[in-house]
Design brief:
Domain DUF7586: 353-437
Helix content: 25-40%
CATH superfamily of the largest domain: DD-peptidase/beta-lactamase superfamily
Number of helices: 11
Organism: Streptomyces drozdowiczii
Order of helices and strands: HEEEHHHHHEEHEHHEEEEEHHEEEEEEEE
Distance between the termini: 69 Å
CATH class of the largest domain: Alpha Beta
Pfam family, one: Beta-lactamase
Largest sheet: 8 strands, antiparallel, barrel
Radius of gyration: 26 Å
Protein name: Beta-lactamase family protein
Domain Beta-lactamase-related: 20-336
Number of domains: 2
CATH architecture of the largest domain: 3-Layer(aba) Sandwich
């Protein structure tokens, strides 16, 4: 029987083609190539071109601009996981003399270091990196545009600093470290710092006439970690699969998940656009996307992953402007997810039942609020309010017999079992909150104690 990931319905395929054809025609782009992946398998590819018979395919390179930043962030997270640095470290500890040494690595990754958005003139994306041979040439007087940590302010020079940090710690060029530690292990053989045939040429389209102007494709030098890379839809879908689940050869699932969390406090109200650690985070039509968009003169790129739907879309064009590239990629995900919703995996019982953990499941009360504790196949626990209102979280097991919160109010908090001298369970402790089997159970160690007279009526 054919897997549901192996094919799309004809109506879905036509809707995808219609969306990219419309984007190429209305956006007046010389060429556009797109691909969609579901459940780890490529399920659709499409391309349009202004030259008959010369449409790009999944192995044609386009420049991906700021999608490069996600690759750079992965390298930094690898250094952290190896214990070579801490994200809270000031940059000066590992890369002295930049003039921006007080900012932290975490702030640089999440664009909250307060650095300028761009280098000083001339426009770095359209000029050779040889014009900026040192970090001082990149940063100049724009080192402190905002107080570090106070606000999100996108900074291309910030990722130059991160690339130089990787070079300083590894003792090799950013390009070599990237190739060795990310591109080769993930099989991204068509992703490179310089274009490799077949590749698209970059074009500017006149805003008021159907006329073209070639764009230069410069080697960005020190700015390369912010936007240098060339890639293909096939390679970017492989990279997206890594971003969805992690890969221990490159970066484990927990660290990739960390990259997907907002790096600074969102603005008041429910956030729509945010930034993690090298990843853009977007909420749109009830769906959360992780990934990145990119642009350099002559090229636009977008990669979006909806982890809830397990659908990824990549769109690449060779035009400086004209297409809302992020919207097109998100639309492709929406088309598949809405026309063909994800089919759940079959439910399966636990392979083995841990009697002690099973005994913990069921009702627990925080003061008078009932909560349900459930057990999952990976020994993880989930605590949710009975009425759906209030604080809840998933927890993963630690080797020491405790659990740590994965999300919500209790993210990072420790859940532990507190036992009586005879080994029976007295209560659950969650970040100092006591959960008991009965509301204010007098037999449990409730902070402040429980009135000896117990529960009473109004006239008692």
């Amino acid at each position: 029987m054919t897997s549901p990931a192996e094919q799309l319905l004809p109506g879905t395929r036509r809707a995808l083609l219609h969306r990219v054809a419309t984007a190429q025609a209305e956006g007046r782009t010389p060429s556009l190539v797109a691909a969609v992946q579901r459940q780890g398998q490529v399920v659709w590819e499409g391309a349009r071109s202004c030259v008959d018979g010369h449409a790009p395919d999944s192995e044609t390179q386009f420049r991906i601009g700021s999608l490069t930043k996600t690759f750079t962030a992965v390298l930094v997270m690898r250094l952290r996981d190896e214990g070579l640095l801490d994200l809270a470290d000031p940059l000066e500890k590992h890369l002295p003399g930049t003039g921006a040494g007080d900012v932290t690595i975490h702030q640089l990754l999440g664009h909250s270091a307060g650095l300028g958005a761009e280098t000083t003139a001339p426009w770095w994306e359209r000029t050779p990196g040889s014009l900026r041979p040192t970090l001082a040439d990149v940063l100049d007087e724009q080192v402190a545009m905002h107080p570090p940590g106070n606000r999100h302010h996108y900074s291309n020079p910030g990722y130059t600093l991160l690339g130089s940090l990787v070079e300083a710690v590894r003792g090799a060029s950013w390009e070599e470290v990237l190739r060795r530690e990310v591109l080769e292990p993930l099989g991204l053989h068509r992703t490179s710092s310089l274009p490799q045939a077949p590749h698209a040429g970059g074009w500017a389209v006149h805003p008021w006439a159907d006329a073209l102007l070639p764009e230069p494709a410069e080697d960005l030098g020190l700015m390369a970690p912010a936007g240098q890379l060339w890639s293909t839809t096939a390679d970017l879908l492989r990279f997206a699969a890594f971003l969805a689940e992690g890969d221990d050869r490159v970066l484990g699932a927990a660290s990739v998940e960390e990259m997907k969390q907002p790096s600074a406090a969102p603005a008041p109200g429910e956030w729509v656009d945010h930034y993690g650690l090298g990843l853009q985070l977007v909420r749109r039509k009830g769906r959360t996307f992780i990934g990145h968009t990119g642009s350099l003169p002559g090229f636009l790129a977008a990669l979006w992953v909806s982890t809830e739907d397990d659908v990824t879309a990549v769109v690449l064009v060779n035009a400086t402007s004209g297409v809302a590239i992020g919207e097109v990629a998100a639309d492709l995900v929406d088309i598949v997810a809405e026309a063909e919703p994800r089919i759940p995996e079959p439910w399966r019982p636990l392979p083995e039942v841990d009697a002690e953990l099973l005994a913990l499941t069921g009702l627990w009360y925080w003061a008078t609020r009932p909560n349900i504790l459930t057990l999952h196949a990976d020994r993880g626990l989930e605590l949710r309010p009975v009425n759906g209102q209030g604080r809840g979280a998933r927890f993963t097991a630690r080797p020491d017999g405790t659990w740590v919160g994965l999300d919500g109010y209790y993210a990072g908090e420790t859940l532990r079992i507190v036992r009586n001298p005879d080994g029976s369970v007295n209560h659950l402790d969650l970040g100092s909150f006591v959960f008991t089997r009965e509301p204010y159970d007098p037999a449990a160690a409730v902070p402040g104690g429980v009135d000896e007279a117990g529960w009473r009526g109004l006239g008692d």
